[in-house]
Amino acid sequence: MPNLLNETPGLIAFVRTVESGSFSAAAKILRTSPSAVSRSVGRLETLVRARLFLRSTRALVLTFEGQSLFDKVAPLLRQLDTSDEVASREDTLAGRIRFSMPSDLARYFLTPIFRDFASAFPAIKLEVGLADRQVDLIREDYDVAFRVGGGGQGELRVRKLANVNMVIVASPAYLEKHGKPRSVDEASALPFARYIVRGHPSPMVFAGGKQFSPQGRVDCDTGQALRAAALHGLGAALLMKCVVQDELNDGRLIDISTELDLPPQPLNVVHAFGSMIPLRVRRFCDFIADQTKSIPGL
């Protein structure tokens, strides 16, 4: 194999492309253009005299030679990527962290983020996006996204932070009119305030694989809207228990899923950095994971 010491940019572009799955995804991570990444990989292929990828308009497939190079180079780059843990103090971490999280969880996380994390790392710039939808990390330029029940696809990496207890809640007036369901079949006949994803109601999923598509006349795209609809008796709603704990305590909402086997949902953090997540982002994810321990219902 030729000497690759002078081809560090090409090696980085190659490894990022393998781990993210495409030139465009690697370009987002490297803050450059897909054509620049493609050229860097092309120069590397010329240097090693081998095709590293088989390319088409829809796919990018690693060749045997590409896999062999990746296996040799990727561990070395990972070591360099994490070397700042030894060479730098924690309070010298700098750069941007652009993150997305559900608006329902912001009430628990934003105060410690702004009060504790931001003060511990004054050189880190924070960009906050509150959205219940699943943002496109690469197209929308997010470093990480926190999702309840949603994982990652393709080039995205997922880390589970905690389990989130779920409940189906309704107002006392609703309960008096419709009663409490004793089975999934009975629950499927009830009117719901529905959570809408890409124009379609999100299914209700129970232990053992049972599920149904809820019916109802109120469609919402945020947990806060679902909560308000349930409070006003417009339908039952599936929500994180921590979000409605106050209403459950004072009786404004009632848990009607006590006889249903409703599994918890994972709280995940999702990113597109592959195995080479920047130290500042890793510290931020660790911080959020630690905060989940103090949140009731998680």
TrEMBL record:
CDD domains: PBP2_CrgA_like. Transmembrane segments: none annotated. It comes from the Bacteria. Keywords: DNA-binding, Transcription, Transcription regulation. Residues 11-63 form the HTH lysR-type domain. InterPro entries: LysR-type_TF_proteobact-type, LysR_HTH_N, LysR_subst-bd, WH-like_DNA-bd_sf, WH_DNA-bd_sf. Belongs to the LysR transcriptional regulatory family. PANTHER family: HTH-TYPE TRANSCRIPTIONAL ACTIVATOR TTDR-RELATED (PTHR30537:SF5), HTH-TYPE TRANSCRIPTIONAL REGULATOR (PTHR30537). This is LysR family transcriptional regulator.
